[in-house]
């Protein structure tokens, strides 16, 4: 029996403790990248605000960081770099940690290429220092400018990129967010228990007569981690169905609760709630 156990230990221990833990899927399932991030933050007390990439599939990445980080004075924001990029509040460059998955996708990767050369913290963790936007003034190509919703988010600009086609939206956390309760629910959730997001951005491409053609709803930052002064940009992609009519089109945009369907209205110039959607003309079609 001893010889049998020794032979198996000789054969398997290296794989179990060295090879297997470095497999990408194993690291992903056990949140190993977030343990690396927590250790890095613990070793660098000068970092008090940081944005970290995440799949945002539930609260689990956020909880893993809370468990592994020994400090209580670091403010972590989470975002999915496939669709978004986040700048923390303040004038100093934002500290951004990218895990091995998910990876930035175009055009988000273009923002990172404009940053200083990254620092490799570990084979699975990369540090970026990203210069913050200098002002909230809209780009001349933006369809809308500086519209605040009643929940505290402000739409700084919305820019249509016809070549893709996609919509690039930039947001500011103008005030502490007014969010519905978001309890932690087991995964998988019990029957009949909702475990999805409670805040999303809806973007619907409509025909000239108002007919719905295609939409891309979502929020690719964790709203529970956002703080006033934070900014983020996110991408909405559109693929028209083959039978869609030719343009021009209208883009419908707003904020809503995916559980209830309730929308947050935009504040009017008098500070009172107004319309619960924005309609943006798109002169050229996808």
What's a quick, concise take on this entry?
By secondary structure, the chain is α+β, with helices and mostly antiparallel strands.
General description of the model:
By secondary structure, this protein is α+β, with helices and mostly antiparallel strands. It folds into 2 domains: 31-130; 145-282, Immunoglobulin-like (Sandwich), CATH 2.60.40. Helices cover 18% and strands 30% of the residues. The protein has 5 helices and 15 strands. The chain has helices at residues 2-19, 24-29, 32-43, 60-68, 108-113; strands at residues 49-53, 75-79, 84-87, 94-99, 119-122, 125-130, 145-148, 153-161, 166-173, 200-207, 212-215, 231-237, 249-256, 263-264, 278-282. Strands 2-1-4-6-5 form a 5-stranded mixed β-sheet, with helices on one face. A 5-stranded antiparallel β-sheet has the order 3-12-9-8-7, with no helix packed on it. Strands 10, 11, 13, 14 and 15 form a 5-stranded antiparallel β-sheet that branches. β7 (145-148) and β8 form a beta hairpin. α3 (32-43) packs across α4. The model has no long low-confidence stretch (mean pLDDT 88).
């Amino acid at each position: 029996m001893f010889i049998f156990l020794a032979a198996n230990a000789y054969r398997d221990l290296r794989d179990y403790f060295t090879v297997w833990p470095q497999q990408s899927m194993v690291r992903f399932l056990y949140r190993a990248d977030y343990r690396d991030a927590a250790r890095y933050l613990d070793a660098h007390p000068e970092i008090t605000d940081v944005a970290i990439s995440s799949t945002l599939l539930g609260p689990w990445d956020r909880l893993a960081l809370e468990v592994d980080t020994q400090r209580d004075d670091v403010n972590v924001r989470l975002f999915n770099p496939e669709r978004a990029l986040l700048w923390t509040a303040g004038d100093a460059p934002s500290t951004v940690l990218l895990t091995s998955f998910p990876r930035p996708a175009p055009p988000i990767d273009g923002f990172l290429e404009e940053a200083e050369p990254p620092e490799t913290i570990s084979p699975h963790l990369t540090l970026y220092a990203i210069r913050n936007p200098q002002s909230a003034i809209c780009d001349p190509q933006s369809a809308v400018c500086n519209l605040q919703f009643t929940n505290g988010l402000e739409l700084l600009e919305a820019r249509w990129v016809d070549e893709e086609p996609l919509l690039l939206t930039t947001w500011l956390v103008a005030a502490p967010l007014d969010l519905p309760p978001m309890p932690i629910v087991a995964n998988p959730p019990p029957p009949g228990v909702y475990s999805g997001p409670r805040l999303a951005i809806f973007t619907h491409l409509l025909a000239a007569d108002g007919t719905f053609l295609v939409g891309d709803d979502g929020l690719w930052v964790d709203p529970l981690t956002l703080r006033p002064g934070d900014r983020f940009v996110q991408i909405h992609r559109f693929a028209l169905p083959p039978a869609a009519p030719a343009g021009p089109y209208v883009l419908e945009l707003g904020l809503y609760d995916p559980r209830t369907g309730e929308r947050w209205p935009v504040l009017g110039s008098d500070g009172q709630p107004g319309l619960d959607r924005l309609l943006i003309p798109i002169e050229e079609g996808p």
